[in-house]
Amino acid sequence: MKRVIKAIGAALALSLVLILAKNEYARLLPASTYGMQAVLRKGETENLFIGSSMFRQGLDIDVLEERLEGSSYILSYNGNQPALMAMELQYLLEQGLKIRNLYIDLYPYTAAADPWISDTKILLDTDLKFKARAWRLMKDSTGAGFRDFYEFFVTANNEQLLTYPLNNKIVSAQFRNGGSLIAQPGKTKEELYGLGTLGSRDGVNRTQAEGYGKIVELAEEYELNLWFLETPKYERMYADADYQKLYGEALDIVRELQQDWTGTGSFTILCTENLEFDITDAGCYQDLIHLSAEGRENYTKLLCENLKMAE
């Protein structure tokens, strides 16, 4: 019986060591061309774009590298939210990444969500301290329980770790400096009008609003030039009352932060309405909120022109 107990104890101890090792040291695996570790190993980037799939599908890395001065990097995770973007920015800065220009995704639906990590790739990019902070944020905001804790710390990304050499090779072929190299085709007007809208939300989440504030605070502290960017949505989305209400609320929060800006760098908000982008061209969209390859290129060219004029 004692041997059985010892064997069980040894197995539990080994499991705990492996879990702690995964959560602390998986970030030290060879970096792909995507995520936080890849940009950290560069040491610096002139232009850092932090966002959700809006940035992944909406920014063309070829155009950024051709038309913006200095190096560019796109850090995007699916469903990336303001509160988490603030944590990611803080982590990168504390790890010593040098940044001059910071661009933040202004997408109101992520600002309306409860804090949650929907893209677990971020857990492979960070240390145990970051994960503990992220877990506390999620738990305090949503009341997440033991099952969520188990998935977060124990089972998340295990399949990617087991197939890491192959998975890393595939990911590296799909991205360069965080920018997607996959060319998504556009849709027709009929296809886009056949899609459902995203529906109503309860307004901008308080913790997400605080995330916007934390981003501004970090930009002030590290003397960064700060931009909030809204990537173009299809005309049907702009005609949606629920989207407009939420978009207006998120924009008001950012504008208020802009008024209180005390940083040595600039603070600029660039929305679709500030650009001459054709939101009626269905070929520029793969759905109501994500740009196609054509739309991505067109938008990024217009964006770069406006960024240069703002210098």
What would you say this structure looks like, in words?
- The chain has one domain (about 35-125, about 185-310): Rossmann fold.
- It contains 16 helices and seven strands.
- The protein has helices at about 1-25, 35-40, 55-60, 60-65, 80-95, 110, 120-125, 130-140, 145-155, 160, 165-175, 190-195, 205-220, 235-240, 240-260, 295-310; strands spanning about 45-50, 70-75, 100-105, 175, 180, 225-230, 265-270.
- A five-stranded parallel β-sheet has the order 2-1-3-6-7, with helices on both faces.
- A hairpin with a 2-residue loop joins strand 4 (about 175) and strand 5 (about 180).
- Helix 5 (about 80-95) packs parallel to helix 13.
- It is globular, with a radius of gyration of 21 Å.
- This is SGNH/GDSL hydrolase family protein.
| Total beta strands | 7
How many H/I helical runs?
A: 16
How big is the Rg? Answer: 21 Å
User: What form results from the Cα inertia axes?
Assistant: globular
DSSP strand content: 5-15%
Q: Roughly what percent helix?
A: 40-55%
CATH topology, anyone?
Answer: Rossmann fold
Number of domains: 1
Q: What is the strand arrangement across the widest sheet?
A: 2-1-3-6-7
Organism: Roseburia difficilis
Protein name: SGNH/GDSL hydrolase family protein
Main traits of this protein?
311 residues, alpha/beta, Rossmann fold, five-stranded parallel β-sheet, two-stranded antiparallel ribbon, 16 helices, 7 strands, 53% helix, 11% strand
